[in-house]
Design a protein that fits this description.
This is Tripartite tricarboxylate transporter substrate-binding protein. Belongs to the UPF0065 (bug) family. It holds the Pfam family TctC. Keywords: Signal. The chain has 324 residues and is an alpha/beta fold. It folds into two domains: 192 residues, D-Maltodextrin-Binding Protein, domain 2 (3-Layer(aba) Sandwich), CATH 3.40.190; 116 residues, D-Maltodextrin-Binding Protein, domain 2 (3-Layer(aba) Sandwich). It is built from twelve helices and ten strands. The protein has a five-stranded mixed β-sheet with strand order 2-1-3-10-4, sandwiched between helices. Helix 2 links the parallel strand 1 and strand 2. The radius of gyration is 22 Å and the shape is globular.
Length: 324
């Protein structure tokens, strides 16, 4: 009897293994939906579209973008979390929707609701002011903020946005005080920074790139430890100031619902690595202010998210940040 039970278990394991192998070999056998939980034109959307086009070509099935914006990325993310774990509904996940949103709001999902397939991009943020602002470089700006606690203000695209978190970390690390002015999106915030109604802000290279190139804003430094290929002359804060360990940026990656078979995730990962290393995607990223990433496995992406969740959770708590 015991032998029969063991044989039954072994048979089940063999069948599951064979099914997983078959799923990987035949994946994708139909079009794949990629849900972007933001509006079209935003950095996550732009990166996902570039990679989806390449994935469709290399994996011989369409990867179709489906924008489902709202609730700080929560609507689209929740839809993917509730989808069948078969690899045919993916999330274009990002720092904001996957890591920050569940830390700030009551959501039906969290980072553990998804199985990472691989990073597709990173997006550094840039410290900017109006061109007329008195500080001419990053060190002078730091000194000005330190010498005038509470005098200056910073904008963001909303409470709990990545730009807000980076700004709070920056102000905290230099030992200064500044007032936060949240906006509903980047556009209005940048307009008011250019006009001098708000003193400074951190926003994505994607958002500020045209304003930097036109000379409407002064760009001081990057939030990431690495330089931007789109703004190669702008130094990281880590080298432009005394903040040697400053390194905070947004990531973008493709994720499947929790429970998706590992062979399917690995097949996706191979397609992602091919896509992000292709000249087509690199050229598109360059014009958008988005950075390509080194080869990233699902396990490496999981580790990044776990570390980030602790780090940003601590920052949110220390800065007493609340959702809008």
């Amino acid at each position: 009897m015991r032998f029969s039970s063991l044989r039954f278990v072994a048979t089940c394991i063999a069948m599951c293994t064979a099914a997983s192998a078959f799923a990987a070999d035949s994946y994708p056998a139909k079009p794949v939906k990629v849900i972007v939980p933001w509006t079209a034109g935003q950095a996550t959307d732009a990166a996902a579209r570039a990679v989806a086009e390449r994935l469709g070509s290399s994996m011989k099935q369409p990867f179709i973008i489906d924008n489902r914006a709202g609730a700080g990325g929560g609507i689209g993310s929740d839809a993917v979390a509730k989808s069948p774990p078969d690899g045919y509904t993916l999330l274009a996940g990002s720092t904001g929707s996957v890591t920050v949103n569940p830390l700030l709001s009551k959501t039906n999902y969290d980072a553990d609701s998804f199985a990472p397939a691989g990073l597709i991009a990173t997006v550094p943020y840039v410290l900017i002011t109006a061109e007329s602002f008195p500080a001419k470089d990053a060190k002078a700006l730091v000194a000005l903020l330190q010498a005038n606690p509470g005098k200056y203000s910073f904008a963001s695209s909303g409470n709990g946005s990545i730009g807000h978190l980076i700004s709070e970390l920056f102000v905290s690390k230099i030992g200064a005080k500044a007032s936060h002015i949240p906006y509903k999106g980047s556009s209005g915030a940048i307009v008011d920074v250019i006009a001098g109604r708000v003193d400074f802000m951190f926003d994505s290279v994607t958002s500020v790139l045209p304003h930097v190139k036109s000379g409407k804003v002064r760009a001081y430094a990057l939030s990431s430890a690495k330089r931007s290929t789109s703004l190669p002359d702008i130094a990281p804060l880590a080298t432009a100031t005394d903040l040697r360990d400053f390194d905070l940026y947004a990531w973008i990656g493709l994720m499947a619902p929790k429970g998706t078979a590992e062979p399917v995730l690995n097949a996706l990962n191979r397609g992602i690595q091919d896509a992000v290393m292709s000249k087509l995607v690199k050229d598109q990223y360059l014009t958008l202010g988005i950075e390509t990433v080194e080869a990233s496995t699902p396990a490496e992406m999981s580790k990044l998210i776990a570390v980030e969740r602790v780090r940003l959770g601590s920052l949110i708590k220390a800065s007493n940040i609340k959702a809008d």
